[in-house]
Every structure is written in structure tokens, then in C-alpha cells.
């Protein structure tokens, strides 16, 4: 069993000098009588978001109209208080000094350790797309291309990139080529190479899912407190940073009195697995039915730990412990069943949608889960063709961005 990759970032502390500077400046501001702080800017309230309020421009089917949606669940709004009078030059300088002192001070040691993560295995030869990707062998692997597209959206695309420097981690099985690893690192991703997990004989996995159990190694990335896992086949419509503050992502303790004791590994001391129910039909309700118990493992927020990984491994070793049709998804749903000791929780429905239609996009879904490189998934009936064209456009933007910036 592979030991967890554990590279804890250096702990940074707020220096004493920075604290002193901030304290002195606050005293100066008090002396300048800036206490009257009506929230005004040209007569209008001013608000800034610690996670920048996102907007998405939604097109109708005929593209004749557009509506701007603004909804970032879990985002805390910080009101910027502006003095009603015209402060003196010294007061303005003091304010600027405060901003400088705060922005240059090192982060506190309890800074949240969060990351976006996806999984890439060696090319299985399935779902390659309806059009040739070119003569570059790496680009014939559409999942590798999609992994790059997802990274571009999370790291670089202006409308969707992180604004809090959340890293993009790609966990790759050890049979992924060195050239693919190097390309992902050049894109800006953190690549973590892991040993593959072999399927037990009883699992009898279909070809398209062979090797997918190695995905469980994302739970071993214990240098992070919370991670958002996303399958590579995602169209991201707005910034994802605030999902880590969603009420569904609260870390919990297992209900140990409910443990069935079927697994050889003990329950972890704490856990968190949050997501959204798997949609079963192309046309479905949105918002989804909150009573659906089968979670989609293509989009989930979780707490990594070696304990939880070993618990999953013990389930995998037990013959017929879950339905093998969808291997990793059914294992996780068994481990986190609602009547078990570690039930999964729902995140706000606007964070994602599986088998999305234009309706979900118009309602503000942030991550649309579909293989848009396949023509069959770009039908006109429910606007999937519009979404598919959007993903292809992002793919072209990604290629142009890296061509212009780092080859």
C-alpha cells in the first residue's frame, strides 16, 4: 500500500513588526475622526466580496436575450466602509499604509489548506471523441486534454479562475506518460504520481472503468484539509472557491454505534464527504430531488485522511460488498450510505449538475458535468449543443492561452 503523499506547506506567521505597524496606523485613523462610516460611494452602497461575487451571462436558445445571474453560495460579503467626509491627505496615506501592511504580512498559521483535485489514468482508448485530435499522441487521449481544459478553467480563465490561489492537483497513476505529467506541470498543475490499485477478481470491472479505483488515492492527499474533486469532463461557469464554505462541507465524526463491523479497517476519527445526487435521466428536475440517496462521485468535497483510505480499501477487499457496475461511485455510496455511520451530505444544488441542460446553466449551475467532445452529448433538444459549443470554445481558449504563454 502506498503511503500518503505528504508535503505540508510551510507554516507562515504574522510578524510582530506587521502587528505593530497595523496597530499604530489604526490609532492614527482614530485620531483623524473617521468614525462616521456610512457605506457610500457616489451615493450607492459599496460591497466587496472576500471571494469576489461571480456573474454569469446566460443566453437563451435563440441568443436574442441575456440575463446576468449573480449567486455565489457560501460567500461571506465584507462591507467596505468609506468615510463620509473628505479625509485629509495624511488620513488617506494612513489608509494606504494599512492596506500595504496587511497585504504584505505573512498569512496566519491556520490558513485553510484547500485544493481542487482530479484524477488521470493511462489512456483506456474509450470515449475518444468524434474528431481526431491531431498527430500528437498525447492529444489523442481526450481525458488528458479534458484534464488540461479543467485546469485552465480553475487556474487561468478570467471568469472562473481561483482568486485565492487554491492549487490544482492532478493525481496520476504511475502508467501515465512522463510527457503528459510534464505538460500538466507546465500548465501550472501540481502533479502527484501514485501507484495503481488493482481491481480484485470479484469486481469484474468493465473496460471503461478499469483502473478507476486508483482514484481513491485522492483521499490520501493529507496535506490538505478539504479538497474538491472534479472529473475532468466539466464545463465551469463561475468561480468555485466558495464551495469550501458550503454548510454541507462541515467535518463530522462517525456514528460509531452504527458501524456494522463488516470492514476490517476501523472507522476514521473524522470525515466529510459532500456532493450531489446522481441524475439518472438526461432530462430531469432541477433543483434535484434532495431525497435521492445515490451520490455522484464525479463532483465531491471531502476531507482527505489515511484512515478513510484504509477504510475504503477494506471495503474493496470484501467480496460483493457493493454493486460493481459503477465501481468507485458505488463503493463510496456504500461507505457513506445515509443509514450508515458516515452519511454523505448535500451541497447547495447550484454548485453542479450531471447530464446538464441549458436550464441548469440558466439557473446558475457552476460545474456542468458532461463529455462534450462526443456529438451524442451535444443534442439540440435541451440546449446541450449550446453547452457543448461552449466547452469546445474553452478548449480552444486553453490551447491559445498556453501557446501564447508557455508553448
UniProtKB/TrEMBL annotation:
Transmembrane segments annotated in the record for this chain: 12-32
Keyword Nucleus set for record: no
Gene3D superfamilies recorded: Spore Coat Polysaccharide Biosynthesis Protein SpsA, Chain A (3.90.550.10)
Keywords: Membrane, Transmembrane, Transmembrane helix
InterPro entries: GNT1/Glycosyltrans_8 (IPR050587), Nucleotide-diphossugar_trans (IPR029044)
PANTHER family in UniProt: GLYCOGENIN SUBFAMILY MEMBER (PTHR11183)
Protein's name in the database: Glycosyltransferase family 8 protein
Source species of the chain: Alectoria fallacina
Amino acid at each position: 500500500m502506498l503511503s500518503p503523499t505528504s508535503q505540508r506547506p510551510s507554516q507562515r506567521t504574522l510578524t510582530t513588526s506587521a502587528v505593530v505597524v497595523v496597530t499604530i496606523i489604526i490609532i492614527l485613523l482614530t485620531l483623524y475622526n473617521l468614525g462616521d462610516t456610512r457605506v457610500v460611494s457616489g451615493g450607492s452602497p459599496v460591497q466587496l466580496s472576500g471571494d469576489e461575487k461571480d456573474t454569469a451571462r446566460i443566453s437563451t436558445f435563440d441568443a436574442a436575450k441575456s440575463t446576468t445571474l449573480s449567486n455565489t453560495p457560501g460567500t461571506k460579503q465584507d462591507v467596505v466602509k468609506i468615510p463620509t467626509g473628505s479625509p485629509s491627505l495624511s488620513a488617506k496615506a494612513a489608509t494606504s499604509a494599512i492596506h500595504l501592511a496587511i497585504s504584505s504580512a505573512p498569512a496566519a498559521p491556520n490558513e485553510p489548506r484547500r485544493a481542487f483535485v482530479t484524477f488521470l489514468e493511462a489512456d483506456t482508448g474509450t470515449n475518444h471523441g468524434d474528431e481526431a485530435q491531431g498527430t500528437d499522441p498525447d492529444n489523442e487521449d481526450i481525458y488528458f486534454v479534458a484534464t488540461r481544459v479543467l485546469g485552465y478553467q480553475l487556474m487561468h480563465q478570467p471568469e472562473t479562475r481561483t482568486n485565492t490561489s487554491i492549487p490544482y492537483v492532478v493525481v496520476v497513476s504511475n502508467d501515465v506518460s512522463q510527457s503528459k505529467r510534464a505538460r500538466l506541470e507546465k500548465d501550472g498543475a501540481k502533479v502527484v504520481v501514485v501507484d495503481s490499485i488493482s481491481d480484485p477478481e470479484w469486481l469484474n470491472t468493465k473496460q471503461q472503468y478499469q483502473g478507476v479505483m486508483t482514484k481513491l488515492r485522492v483521499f490520501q492527499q493529507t496535506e490538505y484539509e478539504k479538497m474538491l474533486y472534479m472529473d475532468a469532463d466539466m464545463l465551469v461557469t463561475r468561480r468555485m472557491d466558495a464551495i469550501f464554505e458550503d454548510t454541507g462541507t462541515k467535518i463530522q465524526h462517525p456514528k460509531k454505534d452504527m458501524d456494522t463491523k463488516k470492514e476490517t479497517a476501523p472507522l476514521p476519527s473524522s470525515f466529510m464527504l459532500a456532493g450531489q445526487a446522481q441524475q439518472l435521466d438526461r432530462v430531469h428536475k432541477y433543483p434535484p430531488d434532495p431525497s435521492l440517496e445515490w451520490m455522484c462521485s464525479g463532483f465531491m468535497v471531502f476531507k482527505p485522511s489515511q484512515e478513510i483510505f484504509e477504510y475504503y480499501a477494506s471495503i474493496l477487499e470484501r467480496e460483493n460488498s457493493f454493486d460493481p457496475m459503477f465501481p468507485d461511485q458505488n463503493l463510496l455510496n456504500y461507505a457513506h450510505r445515509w443509514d450508515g455511520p458516515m452519511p454523505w451530505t448535500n451541497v447547495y444544488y447550484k454548485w453542479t449538475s450531471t447530464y446538464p441542460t441549458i436550464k441548469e446553466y440558466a439557473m446558475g449551475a457552476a460545474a456542468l458535468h458532461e463529455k462534450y467532445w462526443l456529438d451524442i452529448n451535444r443534442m439540440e433538444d435541451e440546449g446541450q449543443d449550446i453547452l457543448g459549443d461552449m466547452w469546445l470554445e474553452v478548449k480552444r481558449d486553453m490551447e491559445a492561452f498556453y501557446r501564447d504563454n508557455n508553448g
